[in-house]
């Protein structure tokens, strides 16, 4: 078996299960998951090094119709990932009907002329008969190179999916060291942990667009001191985040602190601040400042 290595862009509508799939493949929590659409903003890459190949995954923000500046930047990132890869894994939620978001992706894929593997996700939620019907429906929409049903959540058929990816990446040497699982540095992952706790604790009240920035980081006496800034775009959101007598921010801080300690293997002291930046999602400069337009710099 020849050794192969290549880039696989995972694209799909918000909530299709991209992050869950990436985590199932990499067997480690590196992309954040939540039940809200569009929690994945940067192109988190996961790297899986196996005996036969190195699979480099580019996770993309959910493709959706751009409504604001931030939406446009997100879409641009997803598209660049699609153009630069060796093959595309288009993940769909099998329980959802074909919609305008799919139409949008389809158009893009048609113009790229790349191998496209349709990953039919959430098959645990549907009967065999319905699944068959859905597969036939999807098959008639595009000449996919392969169609692979999976359950990212239950980790079903993941090995088969890798086997399929293998066939669509080129022969070549290992591109990254074996122990490297993700190209994003720890700082980014730490901010994502805090953002995940915010989304989880505040439920629908804080939009997915909340930004978390690392202000400072220092080790003192075997303890990691972190200062992070949470940026929201309305005063009312600041109120929600802080909560009654600071109860919400405290609960976010404690939950994040616990996970950060596990991640960093040391005691962590986290300080959180909330800043209101009105309408920051519409300002390109701010988007840049928050690092949301960066695209896999290490790979380019
Ligand atoms: N039942 C079931 N649920 C799943 C499966 N895969 C993902 N989910 C759920 O679907 C929701 C969305 O999953 P994510 O992985 O966050 O989706 P995503 O596509 O990364 O979403 P964005 O970040 O918005 O792009 C979560 O609640 C997951 O638990 C699956 O195979 N079966």
UniProtKB/TrEMBL annotation:
<feature type="region of interest" description="G4">
    <location>
        <begin position="121"/>
        <end position="124"/>
    </location>
</feature>
<dbReference type="InterPro" id="IPR004044">
    <property type="entry name" value="KH_dom_type_2"/>
</dbReference>
<dbReference type="InterPro" id="IPR015946">
    <property type="entry name" value="KH_dom-like_a/b"/>
</dbReference>
<keyword id="KW-0547">Nucleotide-binding</keyword>
<dbReference type="GO" id="GO:0005886">
    <property type="term" value="C:plasma membrane"/>
</dbReference>
<feature type="binding site">
    <location>
        <begin position="121"/>
        <end position="124"/>
    </location>
    <ligand>
        <name>GTP</name>
    </ligand>
</feature>
<protein>
    <recommendedName>
        <fullName>GTPase Era</fullName>
    </recommendedName>
</protein>
<dbReference type="InterPro" id="IPR009019">
    <property type="entry name" value="KH_sf_prok-type"/>
</dbReference>
<dbReference type="InterPro" id="IPR027417">
    <property type="entry name" value="P-loop_NTPase"/>
</dbReference>
<comment type="function">
    <text>An essential GTPase that binds both GDP and GTP, with rapid nucleotide exchange. Plays a role in 16S rRNA processing and 30S ribosomal subunit biogenesis and possibly also in cell cycle regulation and energy metabolism.</text>
</comment>
<feature type="domain" description="KH type-2">
    <location>
        <begin position="202"/>
        <end position="278"/>
    </location>
</feature>
<feature type="region of interest" description="G2">
    <location>
        <begin position="38"/>
        <end position="42"/>
    </location>
</feature>
<dbReference type="GO" id="GO:0005829">
    <property type="term" value="C:cytosol"/>
</dbReference>
<dbReference type="InterPro" id="IPR005225">
    <property type="entry name" value="Small_GTP-bd"/>
</dbReference>
<keyword id="KW-0963">Cytoplasm</keyword>
<dbReference type="GO" id="GO:0003924">
    <property type="term" value="F:GTPase activity"/>
</dbReference>
<keyword id="KW-0694">RNA-binding</keyword>
<feature type="region of interest" description="G3">
    <location>
        <begin position="59"/>
        <end position="62"/>
    </location>
</feature>
<comment type="similarity">
    <text>Belongs to the TRAFAC class TrmE-Era-EngA-EngB-Septin-like GTPase superfamily. Era GTPase family.</text>
</comment>
<dbReference type="Pfam" id="PF01926">
    <property type="entry name" value="MMR_HSR1"/>
</dbReference>
<keyword id="KW-0699">rRNA-binding</keyword>
<feature type="binding site">
    <location>
        <begin position="12"/>
        <end position="19"/>
    </location>
    <ligand>
        <name>GTP</name>
    </ligand>
</feature>
<dbReference type="GO" id="GO:0005525">
    <property type="term" value="F:GTP binding"/>
</dbReference>
<dbReference type="InterPro" id="IPR030388">
    <property type="entry name" value="G_ERA_dom"/>
</dbReference>
<feature type="region of interest" description="G5">
    <location>
        <begin position="150"/>
        <end position="152"/>
    </location>
</feature>
<feature type="domain" description="Era-type G">
    <location>
        <begin position="4"/>
        <end position="171"/>
    </location>
</feature>
<dbReference type="Pfam" id="PF07650">
    <property type="entry name" value="KH_2"/>
</dbReference>
<dbReference type="GO" id="GO:0000028">
    <property type="term" value="P:ribosomal small subunit assembly"/>
</dbReference>
<keyword id="KW-1003">Cell membrane</keyword>
<comment type="subunit">
    <text>Monomer.</text>
</comment>
<dbReference type="InterPro" id="IPR005662">
    <property type="entry name" value="GTPase_Era-like"/>
</dbReference>
<keyword id="KW-0472">Membrane</keyword>
<dbReference type="GO" id="GO:0043024">
    <property type="term" value="F:ribosomal small subunit binding"/>
</dbReference>
<feature type="region of interest" description="G1">
    <location>
        <begin position="12"/>
        <end position="19"/>
    </location>
</feature>
<feature type="binding site">
    <location>
        <begin position="59"/>
        <end position="63"/>
    </location>
    <ligand>
        <name>GTP</name>
    </ligand>
</feature>
<dbReference type="InterPro" id="IPR006073">
    <property type="entry name" value="GTP-bd"/>
</dbReference>
<keyword id="KW-0342">GTP-binding</keyword>
<dbReference type="GO" id="GO:0070181">
    <property type="term" value="F:small ribosomal subunit rRNA binding"/>
</dbReference>
<keyword id="KW-0690">Ribosome biogenesis</keyword>
